[in-house]
Amino acid sequence: RTRGRRASSGRPVPAGSSTCRGSRSSREPSPIKAFSGRPISGCERLPTSRPGTQLAHSSRFRICRLESLNSTEVPSVIRRLAAGEEYGERLVQALMSGGGDIRGILTTPLMITLLVITYRAYQRLPERLSEFYEHLFSILWSRHDDTKPGFIRVKRCPLNDREIRRVFDTVCFLARRDGIVEFSRQQILEVARKAIDAMQYECDDAAFVDDVRDITNLILEDGTRYSFIHKSVLEYHAAAYIAALRDDDRSEQVYTSLRQRHWLTWQEELLFLKEIDALRFNRFFLIPACESFFYKYLRRIPRTWEKTPKSVIQRLYKGHHLLIAVDATKSVQAVWYAALDVSRLGWAFMNYADRAERDLLCDALDVDMLLAANESGVAKRLKKPFVGMIPEKETGYKVSTCEALDYGAISYEPLMRRFSSLISTIVAEYQTAVESLRHHERSKSLVDF
Asked: Cα–Cα 20 to 30 A to 237, which of 63, 91, 277, 365?
């Protein structure tokens, strides 16, 4: 039971084994044909595979997508992986008594396996997700082998552990920057070469890729394709590359680019950076993002926030529309409205609003009141007619949300109350970040020589 993997009825086969691998050509690999074609009396075959592999698209199997693990199944998976050893029970108890952030990622056997490996090495539950991923690479690269007496793994790449980690971080950053989630052999070697050159190291790109693949399994080879073991690994190490930038000017440039153009697609990296690069995250990203939100919608930087005026609601909903369907007599039949496009409002709103707050319009507008108001003839006064818009084959009017509220004489109070709580949260977070910077500057001045 794991997200994003597929299974079909038959004999269990380890994911990633030779029977599950195949090229991306339309020709089906012979191991799959042989595996599916040999009858075994009384035995069904159950191979497993990640999505996108040749096996997952084979017509020789009935394909089933497996569900994510739920919280009640996690302890049994941990106990099985621990094979009866005492640390497994300690990990289960630690998860039951805490580990809120960690519990959220335990939806697949893979992520539970990685947690078990980390816990076995450190004998404690990571307090934050960033700590979990930070420990993971070093454990897989060296400490896991160190637990095997007399075992020395031959490494092709001459770089030391710290240098390997820096190159891996750079590879992840370049992959995220270029939007690459899956590589050909040639592509991953080119990215590795760029990363090695950027760090000014001497190492063969193929040796680096093969070592990371064989030793850590954080990069997987599937036939002729390469991918990261989990998207969150890619995201954390891309964030770690940014956090490791030594030049504040370069760091500011990256954060400014993230804030102005890329924050919507780099949200997970930003959450990691808030933990592992808090000072520069606050200075170059959070504070400017909050100030941009304040000036655009509140027209000032507030010290506190209690009540949201009507003018702020109108600015927030500028450009948002309703669709009012009418019949031949102009009588209102229905009203449709989309959820507020929070990406337009910027990172500050998106980061602190939960899903319910992002759908504020749906909660605040009383559709029955709006229908009643428009049945009295208001719809005839609304301009911008639409034909064939969503839902299809309906005729009516496209109007701005604020116009509809005004025409329908509907109170702004529900919206004002909901937004007041949200904006108060943003203001409090902004003030905390500002005070954190001030404290840092005071502490810095105390140790000046």
From this structure: 91
Q: Which is more confidently placed, 380 or 10? A: 380
CB 54 within 8 A of CB 32: yes
| Helix ranges, 123-222 (H) | 129-138, 144-146, 161-177, 185-199, 205-211
User: What is the structure's pLDDT at 355?
Assistant: 56
State the average pLDDT over residues 107-122: 85
> How many other C-beta atoms can be found within 10 angstroms of the C-beta atom of residue 342?
18
Q: What is the pLDDT of residue 51?
A: 65
Tokens 């004002």 -> residue: 416
One-character DSSP codes across 128-145: SHHHHHHHHHHIIIIIHH
More confident residue, 257 or 445: 257
Helix count and strand count (H, E) for the chain:
24, 11
Per-position DSSP letters for 216-242, written without gaps between them: I-SEEEETTEEEES-HHHHHHHHHHHH
Residue among 291, 314, 336 nearest 419 (CA): 314
Predicted local confidence at residue 96, as pLDDT: 84
**CA nearest to 28, candidates 63, 67, 56:** 56
Closest CA to 101 of 218, 264, 274, 229: 274
pLDDT at residue number 256? 95
Quote the CA–CA distance of 105 and 90 in Å, as a whole number: 19
The residue to which tokens 């039949």 are assigned: 333
Cis previous bond, 414, omega within 30: no
Residue 79 burial (CB count, 10 A) = 15
Average pLDDT value over all residues in the chain: 77
Q: In percent, how much of the chain has pLDDT > 90?
A: 29
HSE toward the beta carbon, residue 394, CA cutoff 13 A? 17
Provide the whole-model pTM: 0.75
What 3 state SS string does 262-279 have?
HCCCCHHHHHHHHHHCHH
